[in-house]
From TrEMBL:
One of its GO terms (biological process) is axon guidance. The gene is LOC115436923. Residues 627-885 form the Protein kinase domain. It catalyses: L-tyrosyl-[protein] + ATP = O-phospho-L-tyrosyl-[protein] + ADP + H(+). Residues 332-445, 449-541 form the Fibronectin type-III domain. This is receptor protein-tyrosine kinase. ATP binds at I633, G634, M635, G636, E637, F638, G639, E640, V641, K659. Its main location: membrane. GO terms for molecular function: ATP binding; transmembrane-ephrin receptor activity.
């Protein structure tokens, strides 16, 4: 245990005269007295000796221990006189912020039977009291002001023989008490007639010690006041770290830290070394706080100082802005190689090979700045190309080593420079050093096409057209040729006109006719391409306008037509969706049935339109006169739960639980109330609560189930804390798993499996009950989602997106296992729901409860696998638990186990565990029921044949 114990005080010593035992020396005692000395400050007091005031018959006695060292004790031994009431009180003990203190008392006690003639008056216990006070010098405290902590009995008492043999029988008892109301307290020991010697008293409290978790420091924290309380503590990030998510932990009552959430990350330049952030050493770096640790500088870089966040590049090497810090430093590429050019009229194809050195990078690209001249003579290497030149596939940032440059001027020298570059070219300042150039001369070429034609004047029989000179005339334009035809005629017959100017009047056209025009230019190199087609129409009389009424009617028709069309499409879409959904549901259920041939499938009562039809299909109507209500045993969602008796004709009277629906209910409440019976009535399994019937024909409405004497499992376990053997606990878990396997086989998902919804009968048989939550969730998804979901028991996928399946029931089963083994402890203690969700998300899982066998905790962890497909099935869980029951050795605890389970070989060659009979077993519990509860009912006949018909006879079974 990591818990730190804060010691307040210590000890008593010396043995009483009549004992003369061998004493274990505990601590050197300095003084006991009734004189109230100043206590001094708290830190001094923590380890100071206890000041005890002697009252009445208690005597301070010094004796020698077995090593002849003097020790002192307080003793009292008025065993001959009746009605003893002797008090011994400590001085005031400051509580120093503690909320729960522990008192460890070491004492010896004389066996009353070994004292002749003291019968009746001699006791073997003493009482421990406390009194909270702000006054550190109360001289007189009334007996009634003390509150009793406990009656302390000795585990071992000594006799005259022990005294003679100098055998030490020292008892050590620890009690804890909540002290929260005052600055300190007094302890007192009340003797009521025992022969006792107090040897030492140690008072301490527990803290969760200062610790560092996830790079956050959590201070030394005093535990909470109650045994189940958790103290929420916020951590602070260690030096040179920053918060990833607010660090938080809980200090548990026994001084252990629980549930770490969030944490910190070392700053850039620092790494986590055993919980502290240490600077990266020279030659190493860390760029981001989320990086795992410092890394060696990448090639061609270095860091000279500690704490580097990035490594500097060696001279001549560079890092681009977008390069990750982990990337090596690099260089610009060398020039492209072997540049060749092929001229085709006014186009040039350029091709080259990649640079010899790529500089350690893979992002080499090329750009083609072109320098050109417009004359047939020498190059003018300083003029960039005009914007009309076309580069294919592009001019910059190209990966390919080939480019086609077109739309150049005819008869012109061009110099092309191809430049290689990469991500570090700019930073390095490398320019034309990585370039290669070639000079070419373009050939003669026809003019480019005219790009557009406008109609400047339109009459019934003529069109006046004009256009711009081609973008690239490639020489002097000698004339333009205009080709045109009626659109309807296509190009079957066309006319040609020629003109020197950039306009033409086309006459003799038909009115109201669309004509298509193309224009091309001619130079000394010949005609260029025709332009694209341009259409113009000659005029006529104006068209008669369509009447406005007609127009709006048309519009109306169009709009409504479109509307109707949309409506029809929507309807068709919805119907087809519905059909497909329905057929899917049908298909699903058929598939399911196919998967589980012969298995009964649960029917959701809410699929019945008439709830009464469902209830009468699945539940028997009971005549109210056969029910005899006795007392109220609980409060359900719809009203009281009572116990009583049911006598059905021809059957023996049985005990039942009766749930009734309180008056003034709504239709919905009636339906919800009865639905639980409709669900329960479909089940028939020894680990599912059995429905006896319902009363619906008179009021109040009632649901009658079998009676479970021990009520709900969580309360039952809390009441019997620590009283069962581990095998008994596993027996209970087995029953629950068996019930859940049955439900899952029937395709029923419970959604609210928790110890509070398990009922326990007098034979410790556990039965699954409460079939209400699935209904609630289906009814009101939103409300259920936010307010009704039992977060602590529910699988993450069910919380996040309502994926409730048998696998989510398995998760809940794991939580039930934890509840059972911890005797009804609240899962995740008093953490709030949000923290629980967050902790689960971060991978936290509940730790093993005290004394929990490792195999059981492992099974819990399996149930809490994040991936639901990874969780075991109920069938696997059941097998596993059966194996554990048959081999109790695998359940051996780490300490403090109650050793009751032993193994015997049975005559049939299998193992039978015979000592798992529950301690609270009722007399009527039969061998059959017991075998059933541990899943070994198949041995019933074998045992019966051998004459083992009662539990008593079973207990007499020997190994042979
Ligand atoms: P419920 O409405 O089912 O949650 O029941 C409320 C409380 O009534 C439970 O917590 C039990 O303590 C008690 N109870 C319900 N059913 C039974 C039963 N069959 N036998 C004994 N106690 C029951």
């Amino acid at each position: 245990m990591n818990a730190a114990l804060r010691l307040f005080s210590s000890t008593l010593e010396d043995a009483p005269q009549y004992l003369k035992p061998v004493w274990v020396r505990i601590y050197v005692f300095t003084f006991f007295s009734c004189i109230y000395e100043a206590i001094g400050d708290i830190s001094k007091y923590r380890n100071a000796n206890l000041n005890v005031c002697l009252h009445f018959q208690w005597e301070e006695v010094s004796i020698m221990d077995e090593k002849n060292i003097p020790i002192r004790t307080y003793q009292v031994c008025n065993v001959l006189e009746p009605s003893q009431n002797n008090w011994l009180r400590t001085d005031w003990i400051p509580r120093s912020g503690a909320q729960r203190v522990y008192v460890e008392v070491k004492f010896t006690l004389r066996d009353c039977n070994s004292l002749p003639g003291v019968t009746g008056t001699c006791k073997e216990t003493f009482n421990l009291y406390y009194h909270e006070s702000n006054d550190d010098r109360e001289s007189y405290i009334k007996e009634s002001s003390f509150i009793k902590v406990d009656t302390v009995a000795a585990d071992e008492s000594f006799t005259q023989v022990d005294v003679g043999d100098r055998i030490m029988k020292l008892n050590t008892e620890v009690r804890d008490v909540k002290v929260t109301t005052r600055k300190g307290f007094y302890l007192a020991f009340q003797d009521v007639g025992a022969c006792i010697a107090l040897v030492s008293v140690r008072v301490f409290y527990k803290t969760c010690p200062l610790t560092i978790r996830n790079l956050a420091t959590f201070p030394d924290t005093v535990t909470g006041a109650d045994t189940s309380s958790l103290v929420e503590v916020r951590g602070s990030c260690v030096n040179q770290s920053e918060e990833r998510e607010e660090p938080k932990m809980y200090c548990g009552a026994d001084g252990e830290w629980l549930v770490p959430i969030g944490g910190c990350l070392c700053n850039p330049g620092y790494e986590d070394k055993g919980g502290a952030c240490k600077a990266c050493t020279a030659g190493f770096y860390k760029a981001k706080s989320s990086d795992v640790g410092c890394s060696k500088c990448p090639p061609h870089s270095h860091s000279l100082r500690d704490g580097a966040t990035v490594c500097d590049c060696h001279s001549g090497y560079y890092r681009a802005d977008t390069d990750p810090p982990a990337m090596a430093c690099t260089q610009p590429p060398s020039a492209p190689q072997q540049l060749i050019s092929v001229v085709n009229k006014t186009s040039v194809v350029l091709e080259w090979s990649p640079p010899r050195r790529l500089g350690g990078r893979s992002d080499t690209s090329y750009k083609y700045p072109r320098l050109g001249s417009d004359s047939g003579s020498g190059s003018q290497l300083c003029l960039p190309c005009g914007s009309d030149v076309v580069f294919s596939p592009g001019q910059t940032d190209l990966k390919a080593t080939r480019v086609v440059v077109s739309e150049l001027r005819a008869h012109t020298h061009y110099t092309f420079i191809v430049q290689a570059g990469n991500g570090v070219s700019q930073i390095s300042g490398a320019g034309t050093a990585q370039s290669v150039s070639v000079t070419v001369t373009t050939n003669q070429a026809a003019p480019s096409p005219v790009s557009s034609i406008q109609a400047t004047d339109v009459t019934r029989h003529s069109l006046s057209l004009s256009w711009q000179q081609p973008d690239r005339p490639n020489g002097v334009i000698l004339e333009y040729e205009v080709k045109f035809y009626e659109k309807d005629q296509r190009e079957r017959s066309y006319r040609i006109m020629r003109t020197f100017s950039r306009s033409v009047d086309v006459t003799g056209l038909n009115p109201l006719t669309v004509y298509v025009f193309h224009v091309r230019a001619r130079t000394a190199a010949g005609y260029g391409e025709f332009s694209a087609s341009f259409e113009f129409s000659t005029n006529s009389d104006p068209f008669p306008l369509i009447g406005e009424g007609v127009n709006s009617a048309f519009l109306l028709l169009s709009v409504s037509g479109v509307g109707i069309l949309l409506l029809i499409s929507a309807a068709v879409f919805i119907i087809s969706r519905r059909r497909s959904k329905y057929s899917k549901t049908k298909q699903d259920s058929e598939e399911e049935k196919h998967l589980n041939p012969g298995v009964k499938i649960y029917v959701d009562p809410f699929t019945y339109e008439d709830p009464d039809q469902a209830i009468h299909e699945f539940a028997k109507e009971i005549d109210v006169s056969s029910i005899h209500i006795e007392r109220v045993i609980g409060m359900g969602e719809f009203g009281e739960v009572c116990s009583g008796r049911l006598r059905l004709q021809g059957k023996r009277e049985i005990y039942v639980a009766i749930k009734s629906l309180k008056a003034g209910y709504s239709d919905k409440q009636r339906r919800d109330f009865l639905s639980e019976a409709s669900i329960m009535g479909q089940f028939d399994h020894p680990n599912i609560i059995r429905l006896e019937g319902v009363v619906t024909r008179c009021k109040p409405l009632m649901i009658i189930t079998e009676y479970m004497e021990n009520g709900s499992l969580d309360a039952f376990l809390r009441k019997h804390d620590g009283q069962f053997t581990v095998i008994q606990l596993v027996g209970m878990l087995r029953g629950i798993a068996s019930g859940m396997k049955y439900l899952s086989d029937m395709s029923y998902v419970h959604r609210d499996l928790a110890a509070r919804n398990i009922l326990v009968n007098s034979n410790l048989v556990c039965k699954v009950s409460d079939f209400g939550l699935s209904r609630v969730l289906e009814d009101d998804p939103e409300a259920a989602y936010t307010t009704r979901i039992p977060i602590r028991w529910t699988a993450p996928e069910a919380i996040a997106y309502r994926k409730f399946t048998t696998a989510s029931d398995v998760w809940s089963y794991g939580i039930v296992m934890w509840e059972v083994v911890s005797y009804g402890e609240r899962p995740y203690w008093d953490m709030n729901n949000q923290d629980v969700i967050k902790a689960i998300e971060e991978g936290y899982r509940l730790p093993a409860p005290m004394d929990c066998p490792v195999v059981l905790h492992q099974l819990m962890l399996d149930c809490w696998e994040r991936e639901r497909a990874e969780r075991p099935t109920f069938s696997q869980i059941l097998n596993m638990l059966d194996k554990l029951i048959r081999n109790p050795g695998t359940l051996r605890r780490t300490g403090g186990e109650r050793p009751t389970a032993t193994m015997l070989e049975s005559g049939v060659g299998s193992e039978v565990c015979v000592s798992v009979v529950p301690e609270v077993c009722m007399p009527e519990w039969s061998v059959c029921e017991w075998l059933q509860s541990i899943g070994l009912e198949r041995y019933r006949d074998t045992l019966a044949a051998a004459g083992y018909t009662s539990l008593d006879s079973l207990l007499a079974l020997t190994h042979q």
